[in-house]
Amino acid sequence: MHTLTLRRPDDWHLHLRDGAMMHAVAPETARHFGRAIIMPNLIPPVVTGADAAAYRDRIMDALPQGSTFKPLMVLYLTEETDPEDVAAAHAAGIATSVKLYPAGATTNSASGVRNFDKVRPVLEKMAEIGMPLCVHGEVVENHVDIFDREAVFIDTVLDPIRKATPDLKVVMEHITTSQGAQYALEGGDNLGATITTHHLVINRNDILVGGIKPHYYCLPVAKREEHRLALVKAATSGNGSYFLGTDSAPHLDGAKLSACGCAGCFTATNTMSILAEVFESEGALDKLENFTSLNGPAFYNLPVNEDTITLTKGDPVTYPEAIDTPDGRVTVFDPKMPLHWQVS
Ligand code: NCD
Ligand code: ZN
After folding, report:
1. How far is CA 172 from the centre of its chain?
2. Ligand 2 mean position to 248 CA, how many Å?
3. Which pLDDT score is estimated for 107?
4. Pocket of ligand 1 (CB under 6 A)
5. Residue nearest to atom 5 of ligand 1 (CA)
6. Where are the beta strands (DSSP E) in the chain?
7. pLDDT tens column, 186-244
8. pLDDT over 70 for what percent of the chain?
């Protein structure tokens, strides 16, 4: 097989940032993707419907002329979030989902939730109106080892929330463990999970063996090889529980290559080439469209994209090592393997 045509893919978890950074990175996603769920962890965060509408306008201004890319906006859940504002933003088509960050779990999560009981009224309203909750699934307690934080979150936070609010649609964002993949599979129609490009490629050895690799550091941190294999199996299965959320998370190189380096891998530029390589090596190219283009819209009750993209196989693909912004470089994720599929 040397060409592969897919419904245009969507990215169900993306960081576009704001200002000059957004202008530099937005075209990288808009080139191949039809829509993306836009993460709201700006400083200050995108909390209200008005914040989301203003951010959406800024994103539209950052897109290349003629682009048909559609940002799907997300509200950042705080303990002060007003259920009525959430419902109004959803009804007006301004906000597609709400994002739950446990306070302190990741980049710009300080305004997130400490006491999950405080957001019950918002979650109940969301269940009533059918609005999905996107969840960063890691506990933040100091005594819990960073490699165990996802599995502990599922047992101690996510499962109780889902039992208390069974009608709430939940997306487990960027799962990194076999436990996450299994829980998503067993969760029925109201539960889905996004999987990133980089978690299909790297394990924790890739971050730490032979010298620390800051560009492979992200949250949730990559786990053991057995977990990467579980994610590959899940993504390439075609099962509707799993869909692509790249979590492409640009940071300036200066912020990554630091004594306290930021978490995030920037994969917008080469994601489709990497995914095609991973799916091909599993003999699952016929499942790539499910993962990138069909399962996400089905979960979100949105139509699939009307148009298609075509990938062509040939000599190893070249892509830039970094994207330039007026403030500095953003290194593009290096999958450490030749990529043969290119979006034509
Ligand atoms: C994300 C970021 O930089 O905003 N970083 C990351 O490592 N994934 C935040 C997030 O999604 O956790
Ligand atoms: Zn993210």
Report:
1. 10
2. 7
3. 87
4. 15, 41, 106-107, 136, 218-219, 247, 249, 263-264
5. 264
6. 3-7, 11-14, 35-38, 70-76, 95-100, 133-135, 170-172, 191-195, 242-244, 308-313, 322-325, 328-331, 341-343
7. 999 999 999 999 999 999 999 999 999 999 999 999 999 999 999 999 999 999 999 99
8. 100
Give all strands of the β-sheet with 3-7 in edge-to-edge order.
3-7, 308-313, 341-343
Could you report the per-residue pLDDT of 153-179, keeping only the tens digit for each?
Answer: 999 999 999 999 999 999 999 999 999
Q: Which of 85, 247, 307, 315 does the annotation list as catalytic?
A: 247
Distance 128 CA to ligand 2 centre (A): 26
Quote the pTM value: 0.98
Neighbouring C-beta atoms of residue 258, cutoff 10 Å = 12
In whole numbers, what is the pLDDT of the chain averaged over residues?
Answer: 98
Minimal-distance CA residue to ligand 1 atom 11: 247
**Residue 135 Cα to ligand 2 middle (Å):** 10
Q: Is the separation of the CB atoms in 86 and 74 below 8 Å? A: no
> Ligand 1, closest atom to CA 13?
11
Residue nearest to atom 4 of ligand 1 (CA): 107
Give the helix ranges, DSSP H, for 165-224.
178-186, 204-208
Q: What tens digit of pLDDT does each residue of 49-77 get?
A: 999 999 999 999 999 999 999 999 999 99
Question: 298 pLDDT exceeds 90?
Answer: yes
Distance of CA 249 from the midpoint of ligand 2 (Å): 6
Those residues whose C-beta lies under 8 Å from the C-beta of residue 43, and which sit 6 or more positions away, are 108
pLDDT the model gives residue 45: 97
- Asked whether the CA dihedral 219, 225, 230, 235 is positive or negative, the reply is positive
The per-residue pLDDT for range 80-124, each reduced to its tens digit, is 999 999 999 999 999 999 999 999 998 899 999 999 999 999 999
Q: How far is CA 65 from CA 53, 174, 323, in A?
A: 20, 31, 19
Dist. CA 146–CA 174, nearest whole Å: 15
Q: Is 318 exposed, middle or buried (0-12, 13-18, 19+ CB in 10 A)?
A: exposed
